[in-house]
Amino acid sequence: MKINLKDIFLILVGSLFVAFGTYFFLAPNHIAAGGTSGIAIIINSIFPNIPIGLLMMGMEVILFTIGIIVIGPVFGGKTIFCSFSISALVLLMGKIYPNIKPFSNDTLIQLILGILICGLGMGIVFNLNASTGGTDIIAKIINKYTQISIGKSVLMADIAITIAATLILGVSKGMYAILGVILNSTIIDKVILSLNSYKQVAIISNNGENIKKYIVNELSRSATIYYAKGAYKNSNKEVITTILDRKQFLKLKNYIKVLDDKAFITVNDVNEVLGEGFTRII
């Protein structure tokens, strides 16, 4: 199983966001917004002497096994690493800042902040073909076999927890949990969409050869060449098309600005690119 250092770093960043949002915003307000963290918050509200981080660790084993069998060992390995990182970070935060209390009496704003932070972290993790563990493994399985988006799959997997939160923590907390799950699913989809957005660029320039060389040699991307006839001068034109991430597009735009400030460029946003050099088709 091969996991590069960039993946490990990003998984740790995602784990830190999830742990921070859970411990400082959701847990103090007893908002069980899905996942094993939600189940842990429910149990902790009944048995406050059992640490939330320890509860989260204890609930992962069966779901890990299911994830490894159904989705594969790479997903399973990343998920185990992520899940135990979150649990360990929550335990560490509990040691450094024990008995954390709500920051204010405004539960709604703390719910929104907590979900924003957790959703950002979960989006980063899901984008790396991993999950934060727990019910997110179920969401990943739903996504694999139905092509329902990850965010909506998380929503489906967490509904039962929000119902339990309503029964155990009260209607008010339960409604907050339901709102949290809905917000969380939306944020996850938005984060994944933004991390996988590209620019489809079409260029007409009198310096096409230099632009093609720059795309291939400097940006390490390929390009497709079309030939078109201009309606105004009835002349043949070479159209260079390529797909770049946002950083690469800015480099190309700045290069063309210096090389040919009269070049004609059209840009379209692309939400997903599959195939060689991009996301593997699965």
From TrEMBL:
What name does this protein carry? DUF2179 domain-containing protein
Q: What is its main location?
A: membrane
User: Key word Membrane present in the record?
Assistant: yes
Alphabetized InterPro entries for the sequence: DUF2179 (IPR019264), N-reg_PII/ATP_PRibTrfase_C (IPR015867), UPF0750_membrane (IPR051461), YitT (IPR003740)
Compartments, record wording: Cell membrane
Q: How does it sit in the membrane?
A: Multi-pass membrane protein
Q: Which Pfam families match?
A: DUF2179, YitT_membrane
**Does the record's keyword annotation contain Transmembrane?**
yes
One Gene Ontology cellular component annotation? plasma membrane
Sequence ranges assigned to domain DUF2179 in this UniProt record: 221-275
**Which species does this protein come from?**
Clostridium coskatii
Q: Membrane-spanning regions, if any?
A: 7-26, 46-72, 109-128, 149-169
Which UniProt keywords are present, listed alphabetically? Cell membrane, Membrane, Transmembrane, Transmembrane helix
